[in-house]
Amino acid sequence: MTGGTGDDATGRDALARLFPGHDPTSAAHRATDWAATPLGPVDTWPAELRAAIRTVLPSTIPMLVWWGPELVQIFNHAYTPMLGDKYPAAIGQPAAQCWPDVWDAMGPLADGVLAGGGSAHGDRTMLYMYRRGYWEETYWTFSYSPIHDDSGAVVGVFVATSDVTGPVVGDRRLALLRELGDLSIAEADTAGDAARAAARVLAGDGADLLVGQIHLYDHLFAAVGEEEQGGSAPGELTLVASFGDTMPDGLTETHRRPEVIEALRTGLPTRITGLGDLLPQTRRPEQLAGPPPVVDAVVLPLLATGRSRTVGVLVLGVSPYLPLDEPYRHFIELVGSRVSTALTDVLAYEAQRRRAVALAELDRAKTEFFTDVSHELRTPLTLISAPVQESLADERDPLPAVQRQRLELVSRNVGRLRRLVNDMLDFARIEGGRLDPERSPTDLAALTTGVVESFDHAVRQAGLTYRVDVDPLPRTGHVDRDMWEKVITNLLSNALKYTLHGGIEVRLRGDAEQVTLTVTDTGIGIPADQQPLLFRRFHRVPGAVGRSAEGTGIGLALVQQLVRLHGGTVAVRSVQGEGSTFTVRLPYGEAGGEPAADVLRRPDRAAYPALEPATATPGGGFGAAAVAHPRDTPTVLVVEDNADLRAFLSGLLAPHYRVRTATDGRDGLASALADPPDLVLTDMMMPRLDGTGLLRELRADRRTAGLPVIVLSARAGEEAAVEGLRAGADDYLAKPFSSEELLARVRSHLELSRLRSHEATWRAALIDSLQDAFAVVEPDGTLVEANDAYFRLIGSERIELPAPTARWWPDAELEPAQHHRIVAAFADALRVGSGRVTLPMRHTDGHRIWVEAVYNSVREPRTDRRLYVATLRDVTTEVGAVARSEALATLASRLAGASDIAEVLDAGLGELCEVVRGARGVAVALDGAGAPVVVEAGIGLSARVREVLAGLRPDGEPYLDRDAGGRLTGVGTRIEPGAEGGVWLEVDPPRPVAAVDLPLLRQLCAALAQALVRARAYETQRAVALAMQRAMLGPVELPTGFAVRYEPAVRPLEVGGDWYDVVPLPGDLVGVVVGDCVGRGLPAATVMGQLRNACRALLLQAKSPAEVLGALDDFARMVPGGGNTTVFCAIVDRSLGVLRYSCAGHPPGVLMHPDGSHELLDRAGSVPLASVAVSGRPEAGAQLRAGSTLLLYTDGLVERRRELIDAGISRAVDTLAVGRGLPEGQLVDRLCRDLLPEVRDDDVAVLVYRHREPVVFHATLAAEPAQLHPTREALRDWLAELGVGASDAEAVLIAVGEACANAIEHGYRFAAGGTTTVRGRLRADRLEIEVTDTGGWRDTAASGFDRGRGRLIMARLMDEARVEGSPTGTTVRLVKRVSGDS
């Protein structure tokens, strides 16, 4: 059905013009029987309807046209998806019939527009539609616009509409998710509260979530303190919250449903179906009295972060009016995720609350423990301190000096211990709320001055400035004096400890309300991120470097607590690297006890080590006198930051060993590296560099890696000892320790060290006695140990080890390949551990040496570091011989592929540059005609290079160019002795002469000279061969419409056994031939040349294709090698569009028509030439259309191994079909590119012909001279459209003008009112023009026409010019062979 008139063809054309698109909707409109619709046949449709359709169909926006009173629908492809199941019935259907489900809402709007009420529109209008088998909630934005006819009447409605259901529903869902995300743990104390709060939010979206249930495991409601056990059962599911008006029967026992069990098991959502029935089409959603039915539900597992299994499920009933598509599922999953997040927050809050209760209990127990322990420590401290003080104060029986010093040491450290115990006790009492200040009226200025002045000596002994600025206060303070003293003392102790340079300043000021104390120092400062943590108990700033590492971390915390007990505050302002200021602000307070006399208070010096420095005898230890030790006495380095302990250790060791001391790890390291001791005795906790860092640095340096190290540490226990030994210590001694044990351990380790030293001396002597070079190397190439033979190998005196071996490696910039070779060798050694390798090295004098290294991997016993032990042998001579052989072989390989002088020079110059390691150069040689051939590599043939080459010695001895230091900067040599030219190589940077192998240079040049002789001979032979080959190929200049390509299988030959030929014949005929002789290369080419010439001669004798092959069959039998030649011969009649052909065993030609149809020319096939005798050759024909393409080819284009040739022909047909619109030359290129294999062993010939119909020109002009100009211009335009060249077009215009002028002048001289006709036709490249008149010409002899110039001009400008007269008129026939535009 066409929907048109009775003429089906006319109807189809009308439909194609009106619905031209390639999309399915346009095709469906074309296939509709419009005559059966209210619109009637298409050719009767009004222009307004056609215009509206042409506006709607191309648009990518959904549009349609409602036409006529019935509002018949015509729509575009963008509108089709909106129809759902209504498509394709909706095409041509009245709108009311198509949309009965929404017409009660939309019909009045459309009727109003049709009645002339103007446009109508809607924005996000909700409509229930039945278009996919269920009622669907949709939202639309649309506009209805009237379509008027010429009279102004409304004849149709133009509808533009957009389905905005996605955005509207998406906004609604996003609002719900946002509200769900705002749930706070403040609204929910338990998991059940969180579930109920989430259910209240979800109940607000009755469109997407009709009903819902939240089930949680009952263990989530356990009492505080109970935790989920990892291996216990999860418990039972409990319904804790739900929402929705009517819960389906299928969700009454939801926890037992298999879908819920599956979701709990896998942790993935599941779907429950069949809970209800969808509304039928006859019952609209608006007719329901209650909520919509729940048909499906989704089960979502609820997950809580930190829990190994699900904590419950969320069951949501989904809307039956919306498809459960990807956005809907994603929304539901986000709902489940938000509910899970709310549960996670609440459960985490509950866990945090339980942890807080547990921590508070733990803190209370710890405080009680500290209190009890502090009380228990006071008794033994008293029993230690009291006898010591009595002994020191005994004047009747005074102590000897040495004993006094020892007891003073005990007294100082007992005081320190008592201070620590008191601080811990005070802190515990404050934490327990059992410490209150005992306030008494106090002159704070005097009290502060007394405490501060007690630090004067210690501050100045540390080399710091000390400034005290205490002003009298306007009021009397009421403070606990002991507490105030502790505040000042702790602040000053910290300042003194962490101020290494500069000074300390103390200021006290007071106003009417409060006292302000500031302690400012220029110490190390406190990092900004540590300042908020500074007053926490037990907190110590990581990496803080002070005068000692001692401390408990409770001093500043105690200061803050004591100040707070007085109603004050303490603050810090600090800049790292500049210093700190602590500010205490304290109210004056009220009296809280009996007035006490102001007493100048000073801190207990024994409680603060900074105020009571250690006293040592001049010998360096307590009671130690200076001892004169023998020269071989071992030296012990003591590294300890505590002055008392450092002095004690020195005194203990001094009678037996030389003793040096260091105050911290950094000083100790510097001392050990400057003059390595025999043993190191070190503390672990020290400022600047601790014991672990000191061990690490000592073991990393080979000078100190073997030193025995004994660690002293206050950390006791097996774990601490293991940690110290793992850090690299030889022994570990926990404080307190026995003096006898310490001396015994020092003595033992020194004896072991002596034995190891003796063994090392013997080993060194043994290694030096080896004849081969010996070396010990680290993985990074550092030379650790080497014997004399090693240094002789590299030509160097002994140097201090360790030292990098890279100084003897090839330069990374000058010789990257050789440098990489060594780097790769080290990488291989790391991987395999042992082996044998030959490596390049640089001798101290700069020349290259080669060594063979045999190596093995070992572990150093003390440090466990991997080392490589290697023996090395000089193999420079052997490697040089191999390198020369390889260089000559490489050059020979390069020259094997060179076919001319330039290639020979390029190969030789490249090898010479590599031999001289990165040199740049230029090479010059003469060709067979005596002209110079120049090849450059990095430099050009400058005047200086010409001068050097001209001055080279004729015998080929190299010329060496040196700089002022005698280093080589360039090398020049002749390639051919006695001949002009040569090679010049520039060396940059300069290098020693010994670095260049001159004998190898001479050998390479000799080989290069022989290659040049061969190249000259080859070029001569090749020039002759190419001239012969080109003579054997087909024609280069082809008639219009032809394109060819020939690809020989053997290079550099340009011919083979395949051939093509294009032979112009009389009468607008062209002979075309494609053939294939057996074999390839030159032998096949000689046969091809004879057969091709014979075939051309036969075609010129006007023989048919079958006759040509028949005669050629006999000729091939007489030509050696001509047997089994395949030929496809054809004659093309370009004027008639007829092709005649015959085939002798050749693959069939392909004729591709403009519409994509094709035919194989296989109806005139026969056996190959000179194979089997045949009585005659068949011949067949084919019709050419305008734009038809003929493809002839040889089998190399389509034949593949292990594949039928039919597959290759099919590929050729497909490629021809795709490219049939390309110009002939581009089409040939496409065929060769797509079909030729990368590797082939057969010649290929390809011929393409594109047929063109003759192009006609026709003009009739009145026999008046004024008509000549319009005719000339029309003819000019026609010739330009044909692409006729400018010179040919001008010749034709002049000739035709002469003919027309003669017709007007002579034909109608006595008969006015006649006409002249001009006809033109282009047949291939033959332009034919006829000028005809019906007038009566006067006699040519009488008129003197022969004496005119008209015929002469036409004859000279055209290839043919004939004048034919008759009683009925005269015809001038002109022919011109034309060419295209240049």
UniProtKB/TrEMBL annotation:
GO terms for molecular function: ATP binding; phosphorelay sensor kinase activity. It comes from Micromonospora mirobrigensis. Residues 372-590 form the Histidine kinase domain. Its EC number is 2.7.13.3. It is found in: Cell membrane. The modification 4-aspartylphosphate is found at D683. GO terms for cellular component: plasma membrane. It is an enzyme of class 2 (transferase). This is histidine kinase. It holds the Pfam family HATPase_c_2. Its main location: membrane. Residues 1-22 are annotated as: Disordered. Residues 635-750 form the Response regulatory domain. InterPro entries: CheY-like_superfamily (IPR011006), HATPase_C_sf (IPR036890), HATPase_dom (IPR003594), His_kinase_dom (IPR005467), HisK_dim/P_dom (IPR003661), HisK_dim/P_sf (IPR036097), PAS (IPR000014), PAS-like_dom_sf (IPR035965). The lineage of its organism: Bacteria, Bacillati, Actinomycetota, Actinomycetes, Micromonosporales. Keywords: ATP-binding, Kinase, Nucleotide-binding, Phosphoprotein, Transferase, Two-component regulatory system. It comes from the Bacteria. The keyword Transferase applies. It catalyses: ATP + protein L-histidine = ADP + protein N-phospho-L-histidine.
